[in-house]
Amino acid sequence: MKRYINLKPVFLCLALLVFNACDKDFEEINTNPNVPNSVTPDLLLPNVIRSTVNEVMGTSWGIGNIVIQQTAKIQFVNEDRYQWGEINGIWSTMYTNLRDVNNIYAIAEKAGQSNYMGISLVMKSWMMSLVTDCYGDAPYSEAAKGKEKVVYPKFDTQEEIYNGILADLATANDLLGSTAEIVSGDILFGGNVSKWKKLANSLRLRYLMRISNRRNVGAEMQAILTNPTATPIFTSNDDNAALQYLPTVPNQFPLYTSRIGSVNEFRLSKTMGDKLQQLSDPRLQVFARPTPASAGTANPVYVGVPNGLDDVAALQYNGGANFLSRIGPSYYIDGFLTPTPKDLSIAKGIIMTYPELQFILAEAAQKGLITGTAKDYYEAGVTGSFNYYGLTVPVGYLEQTGVAFNPATALELIGTQKWIALFYTGLEAWFDWRRTNVPALTPGASNVNGNRIPVRFIYPSFEFSLNKENVEAAIARQGGVNDINNKVWWDQ
Question: Which of 12, 34, 389, 475 has its CA 20 to 30 A from that of 351?
Fold first, then answer.
């Protein structure tokens, strides 16, 4: 007679034993001791600064300098003819880094570190100003909140975004310096909290001027200037928010790693070159090189190319590339040469500078928005720009026709010198020209945009796949077409 043993209870016990054995140390076994589970603000901050500044300098090189006619192209000239497709770098980079900016704020808030909180608000404000100034309405109040299950962020109006930016910068001013933690990981100011505070208030003045055609900003600007102890601003080039690049990786000036062929496609714009030569302005020798044919001779010459020529005309202009000026040597080091300290003092990643601020104040004073003398601010801006490049203002420069301050033409003079001072410093020259129409720029002869200079970037196509309803609502509010010619709110 066979006996059958019921094995189910045995297997059940064995299974429970195995399960309990696996579960007992599960968390410990599956935790990598070499990977941190949490981060601190100093670990996040360097990459936030580096990647956002580098993106701005890259977009400036590829589009910003071209559209504002500081440089021009002699090959692959689509950008110069306004045959723009999607330009997504600013959008993608700023929103990607916004997550880490928000993390910096949250971590610092929990730890009671007001300095890091203030820095995160300054960076957020600058980053979001770039997004909205390039594209118009954009996700802001609901941006980068995927962890909060906001997967379809609404597009705030540009007016709402600017209200938020200005409020955040005011809050940043109050936070910075209110606690005593040492700021590490700060590759912009080396942990100098007072400089972050000056940047917060200088940016407030920039953005108030940006929206000054849409609302009266005089009282707000004057309030900042009236109390320099509570709301300090830049007082010299020593305060510049300019990322100091290094001779080698990882913090090199972005253009230093480019192929020489790619760099040679870009030349001095005739618009910028002619203006500098008309004024006998030595900044020409910083911005550009003598033509290859004249370099090293007793009579070096500088020749710019008109913007917006077709491929053949651009490449053949003035006899060809050998007779057209390349970009200045500080911005691109040929071969494997190491940049000099002078090069590194010029080729920086700019967020904002003292000369720009002086021109903002000159315009504000001329318009009666603030007290002070427009002439003094204007001349301080010119002098500050020369000094930034290691130059002194030539004798008679400020007194000559086309530079000498004249109340009747003050806004044109201020805008022109500001345009020169903003050479290859990001997208500010383009933003400012859209607001002021100074200097007077003429679209290139072979442009394909109906004789119009573009005034915005189109929204990325991936937004139509990922957030279709909200991006289409934003387009409907802004003219109904996703087009490079639709003006943003502050430009209307």
Answer: 475
